[in-house]
Amino acid sequence: MAPWLPLLLASCLSWVARPASGSSNPPLAVNITWSSINFKTILEWQPKPVDYVYTVEIAGKRSNWKKTCIYTKGTECDVTNLVQDVNDTYTAHIFSEVATEDEIGVEELPYSNSEPFTPYKQTIIGKPGIKSFQYNTDHTKLHVVIEDPSTPYKLPSGTLKTIREIFKDDLKYTIYYWRASSTGRKQESTNTNEIEIHVDKGENYCFYAQATIPSRKELRNSQESQIVCTGHEGNSFNDYGIGMLVAIGIAAVVIILLIVALSVTLYKCRKLKNEEKAKENKSLNYI
Ligand SMILES: *[C@@H]1O[C@H](CO)[C@@H](O)[C@H](O)[C@H]1NC(C)=O
Ligand SMILES: *[C@@H]1O[C@H](CO)[C@@H](O)[C@H](O)[C@H]1NC(C)=O
Fold this sequence. Notes:
Bound molecules: 2-acetamido-2-deoxy-beta-D-glucopyranose
CATH topology of the largest domain: Immunoglobulin-like
Radius of gyration: 33 Å
InterPro entries: FN3_dom, FN3_sf, Ig-like_fold, Interferon/interleukin_rcp_dom, Tissue_factor, Type-II_Cytokine-TF_Rcpt
Domain Interferon/interleukin receptor: 123-231
Keywords: Blood coagulation, Disulfide bond, Glycoprotein, Hemostasis, Lipoprotein, Membrane, Palmitate, Signal, Transmembrane, Transmembrane helix
CATH superfamily of the largest domain: Immunoglobulins
Protein name: Tissue factor
Number of strands: 16
């Protein structure tokens, strides 16, 4: 028998035995997290893939498995459209697959499981808006209208659903308020989006709004709205964000001026020193 025959056979056999999707198993997704705010939901995981791809598959207790982000080389996937039944509890599989030219779906691919996720209970409620606010004519009450955060989901009319359209009566708002001249904070709650605060006549007030989902045990409170202060000349939004930007701007200008002043001073100093040195040299030369 020719000595090369067993070698040829062996390499033939190993080629036949080669699995369709590559010779080694790619790493599985780990640290899978659901990032969800106002029902916009992104699935995130690690590690970044090298030489392989991920595919996400999601099912609820009341819905069948659906694939999305097929063959992604990323480590996140927007699954908002697959978790629209907000009271359902979803689980995700993340498949790891070596990228090949071969037909896929022939064999069982390795995958990892996410934690279960229920949008109604787990999506974070974002900042509410302050739509309007107004004192009554004798300045004893402040009327505030709160704007619901909107969700990515659409009403049949095509406009975006707000969180009110999803939570309905299971959503209340609290206004935290204080006199502009003091820090004693009070609060007032409402089951609607409008609220009336009793205020001291002639005083200016600052306030912010926060939503609460009473049925929840965790993540009950929303993010806080911006702080709004009433002004002397009627009502005005006092956006702390803008105030901060202005402060940073002023600080930047001051720093730049300082640097300019410092470099001018240094330059003059050096020039003076050089002149003095030149003088010294000259006087030395004369000796
Ligand atoms: C998963 O998370 C842990 C803890 O945050 C971290 O130490 C680890 O590096 C993460 N795994 C990957 C593959 O990034
Ligand atoms: C979701 O569940 C809550 C109670 O947990 C219920 O009040 C609400 O109507 C349900 N919403 C939908 C859309 O099924």
